[in-house]
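Kindly draft a polypeptide, keeping tokens residue-aligned:

***
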Amino acid sequence: MALLPILCFPDPRLHKVAQPVQAVDARIQALIADMLETMYDAHGIGLAATQIDVHERLIVIDVSEERDQPLVLINPEITWSSPDRHKGEEGCLSVPGLRGVVPRHQRIRYTGFDPQGQPIDRVAEGFHARVVQHECDHLIGKLYPMRVTDFTQFGFTEVLFPELD
């Protein structure tokens, strides 16, 4: 296993759209192991392959308190989102030193494949849903600051995009 360099904003490679993983082979297995090691070493809770300059649809997440329940999603797709949204604070390994309040869907349904190539079809809510949405955004070239609606915490005097509230 190896620690991988994490791209940081404003690197333009963070805006590339990831392509589907074609095969769950030894290369992908090694990449998963390296991504998990990198995420844990950086004290993150999620990492998308885009963040390490691999533009394939692969994310790793661990939202467990003990940091011992990794979730690997290959070719993840959010197939349903609840209409209700919740604002929550987010940060990102690719945007160090900055946090922002982002509205996200409270519940989602997502599909993908696990590291053995088996299909996944799950419903997630709350923090789990937020993290999946955040990491899937990376795969389409979006960073969470692009979704921030309330910039008052950064010294602005009003909500800049009230229609998104």
